[in-house]
Fold these 3 entries.
Entry 1:
Amino acid sequence: MELGMIGLGRMGGNMAERLRLGGHKVVGFDYSAEAVKRLTESGSTGVSTLEDLVKNLSAPRAIWVMVPQGKPVDETIAKLKPLLAQGDTFIDGGNSNYQDSQRRHRELKAEGFNFVDVGTSGGIWGLKEGYSMMIGGDDAAVERLFPLFETLAPAKDKGWGHVGPAGAGHFVKMVHNGIEYGMMQAFAEGFTIMEHKHELDLDLAQIAQIWRYGSVVRSWLLDLTADALGKNPKLDGLEPWVEDSGEGRWTVFEAINLNVTAPVITEALLRRIRSREENNFTDRMLAILRSEFGGHAVKAEKESAA
């Protein structure tokens, strides 16, 4: 099957390579000439313009978009529409907001195009392990793409599925990432507790390896934890700064709108935000309030070394 791909970063490039190895024709475009070169050298077709991307695909075309959520997706679609024909399919494989995906589906369907949203998980390991895909869209449009999903997935019948109408794929991926926030926070807190128990001199890398087999907390995240601690047991040289790409926030907002309590995911999100406060006013405010009502000691800020 033929596929056009826009966005050949690490994940997009790996997806293109997995498809090529599975026997599919991939034509890729990226604003990075180096990314296009890598795709061409791997055996696929790299192009430098959207016009060439479309010309190298047979109708009905399928274009997989791997660009940052929001405005970049809309801009990419707007540039492609004049080059495509009715019956062609847009696939958004990034981490878009599901409401944006519902809107894009409505707009594109009215113009004769198909739109499929694919929540994609697997990161940099997807080329080897396969990608987990949560797919939303109209039945006919999704079914035509089954050969691509079967190749990208961990197995032909595992790790992917058509979960519902337009927007459902990105909604499920949003909740998936919210759960991921909570799991990561739990691992981080647990290992921090053990790291602080100095009298036992615990080997965190060893413990992570033990838990990987037979334990009820064994998981891919634990595998990555073990690998990271094996490389850098004390996490030396790392800043305590944790980004979030948006899905955790959307999950919390959705929980509030649905009157669903989600304290673990919410707290995990707040901890990520707090990690970026270099001069934490909140904690300083708590300290001074404890001093005001109870006379508790307040520690002065340490002077920087001369």
Note: The longest helix spans residues 168-196.
Entry 2:
Amino acid sequence: MSDHVYKTLELTGSSTTGIEDAVGTAIAKASETVRNMQWFEVVQTRGHIEDGKVAHWQVTIKVGFTLE
């Protein structure tokens, strides 16, 4: 196994359906421009309430990717 150097970036994804979808949305969007993503860590979860119901989930994640 070779040694790696990782850089991290922080993203916040949102979804009306759930936490996993919010994470997936953030990763999918980042993958359009960021190469070599390897892992993520959830650092914050919050939501938006409308009319007494959850309207949106917002999940902040740190994504690690290897430097070339």
Note: The chain has one helix and three strands.
Entry 3:
Amino acid sequence: MTRKELIQQIHEKQSFLCVGLDVDIAKIPEAVKRLVDKQCDEEDRTAMYITAFNKLIIDATAPYCVAYKPNLAFYEAYGIDGLYAYEKTVEYLRAKYPHHFIIADAKRGDIGNTSKMYAKSIFEGNAQADAITVAPYMGEDSVTPFLGYEDKWVILLALTSNKGSHDFQLTESPDGERLFEKVLRRSQQWATDEQMMYVVGATQGQMFEDIRRLAPTHFLLVPGVGAQGGSLQEVCKYGLLKHDCGLLVNSSRGIIYASQGDDFAQVAAEKARELQQQMAVELNK
């Protein structure tokens, strides 16, 4: 998906919501498991539980979001079954919701030859995502293999929402430049805002001003709204771009696990709609 196509979807839907598909078998509502159990005789139903849950969440939330972000750890944890469920989820999105942006949240990053294979696993084959999250720590040659695909994106970790982000990301060089600022400045030599985004946690608040000073036109993927306590209004105040939006705000647990009852899909839709309506207000200020 191109930057122009993504912006078009944002304005048409009046939303920059990304729904995180972080599926934990222990948190899948019993209604899903009962549905699968009625239709399936197989002993190990892990892949079917995950796939069925994802499909129901996607169908419920698709009108209110522009992107989905399956976190690979939540699929790899279940081995072959989990990876099969990931593949089937991406295939479902491609077939039924082709205009939604798909982010493989994998946080890859290794020496060039290894990164090349990571990129191949995400951008080729049956389960082709539009973007992948990448760790910048190993530098340019660990990132560039992901940039060799037309209309595919690298989303580089810049300033994350977890408490431990301060351990390294805010450390300063002798000239006063913080590590996340160096990542932003240096990485823009590798790709333009047509192919690179940055992860910036919603809990960083006013730090978005510093981000926008160094990356004034890039899209930012913003986790941390909802369960982690980030403020959508604060993110928009400092990070929203006037015409291009420049934000994809992710909510995972606050949407997909909003209810454990039989109404889980309906409640997920309501939570997604609430965020979409708030986003529409911010887009039209």
Note: The longest helix spans residues 264-283.
